[in-house]
Design a protein that fits this description.
The strands form 3 sheets. Strands 5, 6, 7, 8, 9, 10, 11, 12, 13, 14, 15, 16 and 17 form a 13-stranded antiparallel sheet that branches. A 4-stranded antiparallel sheet has the order 1-2-3-4, with no helix packed on it. It has a two-stranded antiparallel ribbon with strand order 18-19. Helix 9 packs antiparallel against helix 10. The chain is about 45% helix and about 25% strand. It is α+β, with helices and mostly antiparallel strands and about 625 residues long.
Length: about 625
């Protein structure tokens, strides 16, 4: 009968699993079909747009070469009122450069948008490189305003020529780009670059175009970037490259950084950030964009190490006419993904840095970032990590002591627990009651070891988020590591090991060795402190296996991670080994602990609230068991 029951349960389980698999398969097929339809629609739209662009280019080129009445007629047929812009000297092409201490940007007459932007003081890949970080170059970015005219033409600013005018307002450089339909009617982009600032003022406005454009059709601002790889580890950099945004008056979110493709439609958006690991391009607006279509595509092929781009980001932002005109005051930020710099603008931009949610982000913002910032202000960054680690471990040492003390008490009392297990092996409820009484008399709380372990989890996770986000570590060297924000390769392999990489990093090896000895040191005590529970797997065997598995997992996992993080774990585990040795050999004496527990048994000790609750629950369960037995 029991075998039939097992078989029936197995069949039901199999049917459920099969149904889930079929549902997942059809769900994926549906998603794939939807993606194919979207791709086809996008391809058709791009084909139409390309055709229109070619027609516009042909009309402008014909006018520039002949400048006769026929060419002008063809120009007006393509551009309507905006044919005037193609007759101006700016239509011959050209660029305008703006530069301050931190940025160099080039704005193209064609399209009126930024064609090239350099982050002056930072280099690609490593500090010895000759290449400056360029967020925009070689047409990797598109900034286009698509609008419809009153005579039903669809025009794109990327095909049209703006007239530049460079001036100064105090120390600020002001570049006005105007797309004209007449001398006093125009669409204007206005750039204001301030000294020493990564953020510039940017505005889009129109003048006198209410009779030229179709006010019933919203113009669409289209912003796209294919992000260049700038760091040594493309997989590590790509893991932290994502599209982030702020919406609905201060909420923040992001698209998936790991999906092949992700898109979302969001309302009331106040900024969009095309975030790379250590550099970010951000568009901010004072007037929220009512509805925004966002898209992120992963361009990294894991098998291709020398990839050029990491992701393709795109945003489609419909603009609203007010009183027949456009008037948007915005900002553009091109610069480091540095928490301190982003926070200084007081626009909620620090949320772009992935410091963790809830308490994890709080710990990073108010404890770790200020503490590490202070240390690194007067110490080399490698030394600062070591001192920082020592401070964290000293702060955590009382928790480590409490955890070990609980283990030691459980280890001392385990022989008596084993006697109770043997004595009441046929009465599990009685066994639990007597065990709880023993714990109560001896002054042992079986949960005391769990609480310190739980308290360490927020610290561990916060640090795991802190080090990959610490811009200050970028291209800072320590010992053999050239860059504490990237892996510290000491050997480059002529082949790639799956899940490991094509190099050998030394700090992860040291961290793995440290965690092996730490687990070797503590596992025996954990096994002695945790009595074998009936019906439960033998944890001692599992822990023996984990002694070897955990260091190997760490070795593979951290080989491509920031060497600063591996350095932290190496120092942290080494310090913990020292603290545990001192506690075990010089602070906690098991013989004295046993004598104290024996004395506790002779005195009446009040039960804790937890013990009282457990006692009541077991008595109620025992009573119910007796009632069932009578029935």
């Amino acid at each position: 009968m029991e075998e039939k029951k097992i078989d029936r349960n197995s069949i039901i389980g199999f049917v459920i699993i099969a149904a889930l698999l079929i549902w997942m398969m059809f769900n994926n097929i549906g998603k794939e079909k939807e993606a194919i339809v979207k791709d086809n629609e996008k391809a058709q739209q791009e084909q139409v747009t390309t055709t229109q662009s070619k027609q516009v280019e042909s009309a402008i080129a014909a006018h520039q070469s002949t400048a006769d009445s026929l060419a002008l007629t063809k120009l007006k047929a393509s551009l309507g009122a905006f044919a005037y812009s193609a007759t101006l000297p700016a239509a011959q092409g050209g660029v305008t450069e703006l530069k301050n201490d931190v940025l160099t940007l080039v704005v193209d007459n064609k399209g009126g948008a930024i064609k090239d932007i350099k982050i002056n003081n930072f280099k690609r890949f490593n500090k010895h490189s000759d290449e400056i970080v360029e967020l925009i170059k070689d047409n990797n970015s598109k900034f286009n305003l698509e609008f419809q005219t009153a005579d039903s033409r669809i025009l794109n600013t990327r095909d049209l020529y703006f007239e530049p005018q460079l001036s100064k307002e105090g120390e600020n450089q002001v570049l006005t780009m105007r797309l004209k339909s007449s001398d006093n009617q125009f669409l204007e982009y206005r750039y204001v670059l301030k000294p020493g600032e990564y953020m510039m003022d940017f505005a889009i406005r129109t003048q006198g175009l209410n009779q030229v454009v179709d006010l019933s059709k919203k113009p669409n601002l289209q912003w796209e970037i294919k992000t260049y790889r700038n760091e040594m580890s493309v997989s590590y950099e790509n893991r932290y490259t994502q599209l982030a945004y702020e919406y609905e008056g201060g909420k923040d979110n992001h698209l998936s950084p790991t999906s092949k493709s992700d898109d979302k439609t969001v309302k009331d958006v106040t900024y969009i950030a095309f975030k790379q690991h250590f550099f970010t391009s951000i568009l901010l607006t004072r007037t929220p964009f009512s509805t925004v279509e966002l898209n992120s595509q992963n361009l990294v092929n894991d098998e291709k190490i020398d990839t050029v781009f990491t992701k393709h980001f795109a945003a489609k932002l419909p603009l609203d006419y007010k009183n027949g005109e456009l008037n948007y005051d915005m900002n553009l930020y091109y610069g480091p993904t540095d928490y301190k710099i982003l926070k200084s603008y007081e626009r909620n931009l620090d949320e772009i840095v992935p410091l963790g949610w809830g308490i994890f982000g709080w710990i990073n913002r108010y404890l770790f970032i200020p503490a590490f910032g202070l240390l690194s202000s007067f110490l080399p960054h490698g030394i600062a990590i070591i001192i920082f680690t020592i401070l964290v471990r000293l702060f955590m040492s009382p928790i480590t002591y409490k955890s070990y003390l609980s283990q030691a008490k459980m280890k001392v009392i385990r022989p008596e627990v084993n006697e109770l297990n043997e004595k009441f092996k046929n009465d599990p409820m009685k066994k639990q009651q007597e065990t709880m009484k023993l714990y109560s008399k001896a002054g042992v709380n079986p949960m005391a070891g769990c609480i310190p372990a739980l308290l360490q989890i927020p610290i561990f996770y916060s640090l795991f988020q802190f080090f990959p986000s610490a811009f200050d570590l970028r291209q800072k060297s320590f010992l053999w590591a050239d860059d504490l924000s990237s892996f510290d390769a000491v050997v480059h392999l002529p082949f790639t090991i799956p899940f490991y990489g094509n190099h050998i990093s030394l700090f992860p090896i040291l961290a793995s060795i440290a965690i092996f000895f730490y687990m070797k040191m503590t596992t025996g005590d954990q096994q002695m402190s945790a009595p074998q529970q009936e019906g439960m797997p033998d944890m001692s065997k599992i822990m023996k296996v984990m002694i070897y598995i955990s260091p190997i997992m760490m070795l593979f996992f951290f080989n491509n991670y920031a060497s600063g993080l591996s350095l932290y774990y190496f120092i942290s585990n080494s310090i913990t080994i020292g603290i545990m040795y001192v506690i075990k050999n010089h602070i906690v004496n098991e013989n004295k602990l046993k004598n104290k527990m024996d004395e506790n048994k002779k005195t009446d000790r009040p039960q804790s609230k937890f013990q009282k609750k457990m006692q009541q629950m077991m008595e109620q369960a025992q009573e119910q068991q007796k009632i069932k037995g009578k029935k």
